[in-house]
Write a structure and sequence with these properties.
Layout lengths: L32 H4 L15 H9 L13 E5 L6 E4 L9 E4 L2 E3 L5 E3 L4 H13 L10 E6 L6 E8 L4 E7 L1 E2 L5 H11 L8 E10 L7 E11 L7 H11 L4 H21 L7 H21 L1 H4 L2 H13 L17 E3 L6 E3 L10 H4 L6 H19 L8 H19 L17 H9 L19 H7 L21
Helix pairs in contact: 5-11, 6-12, 7-9, 9-13, 11-12, 11-13
Length: 486
């Protein structure tokens, strides 16, 4: 995950409720590059650029280098598109080789420097983004730039521009063939005029040799330029502070639900959607069962509820499913910024679930995955406070937040057009499906403190038992009459 459209030094510390970035690369979507990029297709570095051998010791120390503890074995695949793409063949099987974007410069003394810190390189990158046919608005001339510190998987650069606008350019480090959903989803939302994401300026694609592709060439996104939003806190930090103080979060949660429904409506209109046919339903439910099996092996607290969870899955399978569409895919409070009104909530990081292959993250999915992710996130707040040095009981606060969030989402969701006959148009009418999503274990965050990845004892039990009854029988999502303040 990146830091989105904000600078850590300009905001509260990054306390998103995700697990720490993995030390291994995400699954490959194509055959391993080392098996598909012939030696004759590689592009050797220029005379003034560091050799692959010299680059190996440098790249091993980068925070974004995925194969920690291994000795890199690099091969340059491309120096086109104003950058350098190097394949690391060090990861041992079954791990696939990893393709990195690693533009560097070499000083007179042979010192290697990251080109993202070079003003001329960033200026040229901005110009290439502006020249892309899909660019939505020009970045213009970059007058100053600084690299963000502390990022794990990408590199972001804050750019001051001649127009006075401030732009954040995210340089993707680990590359895969295909569209990056963080780019395509936010491009679609910005092109539709949505203010629920930082405005996108444009993006840049690159290509590299890959005989595993029909054309012999793979392509993927290299960079994304967006509006920079300094000084904003994320919803996780806001919720944690208000829950700790006992401040009701109901109004904010309701606005958040309405904002998410607005994002889903816009995506349904801007990008393709499709009916949830039997094959897609079977595949989705099978995946949920596989994830449950994995979670039950790793967490005894989950295993205790496995039978009840499977009963919920069965009930969800029998309910009508809404159309499948593009969604966020990894939504929680840490992926939302609290902007001043009238703008309100702004959503970040549409990369999807990190452990899923890139190609799968762009597939149409059920919007209730995002809804369930946010409902779980409210429970994360209560779980985090319950295990602080001075515990705070925020269970009532979380209950109120969940109910009001669903009220807001329902209000916006009821206006969405329906294509599938019989598909319910109200989130409360899809309780069986929603309960199934709530029970779908999250491999990247199971049993961890949402802010820092610390293990939080008791959190799985809270999430697993908060909605369905212990025997797996349906239980209604709390109606308005049952609300209670923390």
């Amino acid at each position: 995950m990146s830091d989105g459209a904000r600078h850590p030094s300009d905001t509260a510390p990054d306390t998103r409720d995700t697990a720490p970035p993995s030390d291994t690369a995400p699954p490959s979507d194509t055959a391993p590059p080392s098996a598909t990029a012939p030696p004759s297709a590689t592009a050797p570095p220029s005379d003034t650029a560091p050799s692959d051998h010299d680059l190996e010791s440098w790249i091993a120390d980068r925070r974004w280098y995925a194969s920690k503890g291994s000795v890199p074995r690099l091969r340059t695949l491309s120096t086109a598109d104003g950058t350098r793409l190097v394949l690391d063949e060090a990861p041992a099987a079954p791990a696939a080789p990893v393709l990195y974007q690693s533009p560097v410069t070499s000083g007179p003394d042979g010192t290697i420097a990251d080109a993202t810190a070079d003003h001329a390189w960033i200026t040229a990158l901005a110009a290439r983004i502006d020249a892309d046919p899909q660019s939505l608005r020009p970045i213009g001339t970059v007058t100053a730039a600084r690299v963000l510190t502390g990022e794990q998987s990408n590199t972001s650069v804050i750019c001051d521009t001649e127009s006075g606008a401030r732009v954040i350019i995210k340089v993707f480090r680990v590359l895969h063939h295909g569209d990056n959903p963080d780019v395509t989803t936010q491009l679609a939302l910005s092109a539709a005029g949505s203010a629920r994401v930082p405005q996108v300026y444009g993006a840049l694609r690159g290509s590299w040799p890959d005989v595993g592709q029909g054309s012999g060439t793979a392509t993927g996104h290299l960079a994304l330029a967006q509006e920079f939003l300094p000084g904003l806190e994320d919803a996780w930090r806001v919720a944690l502070e208000e829950a700790h103080a006992g401040t009701p979060f109901g109004d904010r949660a309701e606005h958040l639900g309405a904002a998410l429904a607005e994002v889903h409506r816009t995506l349904a209109e801007a990008l393709p959607s499709e009916p949830a046919d039997e094959a897609r339903r079977r595949t989705a439910v099978a995946t949920m069962h596989e994830r449950l099996d994995t979670a039950a092996r790793e967490a005894p607290a989950v295993a205790e509820h496995a039978d009840a969870i499977r009963a919920v899955y069965a009930a969800a399978t029998a309910t009508p499913w809404p159309d499948l569409q593009r969604i966020h895919g990894d939504l929680h409070l840490g992926q939302v910024l609290a902007a001043p009104e009238p703008r309100g909530w702004v959503f970040l990081d549409f990369e999807g679930e990190p452990l899923r292959p890139l190609a799968e993250r762009s597939l149409p999915d059920v919007t209730l995955r995002d809804v369930a992710g946010m409902l779980r996130s409210f429970d994360y707040v209560a779980g985090a406070l319950a295990h602080d040095a001075e515990p705070v009981d925020a269970a009532g606060w979380a209950d109120e937040a969940r109910v009001r969030f669903l009220d807001g989402y329902q209000r916006g969701d009821r206006h969405r057009p329906r294509r599938t006959p019989g598909a319910p148009g109200c989130v409360r009418a899809r309780q069986g499906r929603l309960r199934g999503r709530l029970r779908d274990p999250e491999p990247t965050r199971l049993g961890r403190h949402p802010a820092h990845g610390r293990h939080a004892p008791g959190r799985p039990q809270r999430v697993l038992t908060a909605h369905p009854k212990a025997d797996g029988r349906p239980v209604a999502i709390p109606p308005r009459a049952s609300r209670r303040a923390p």
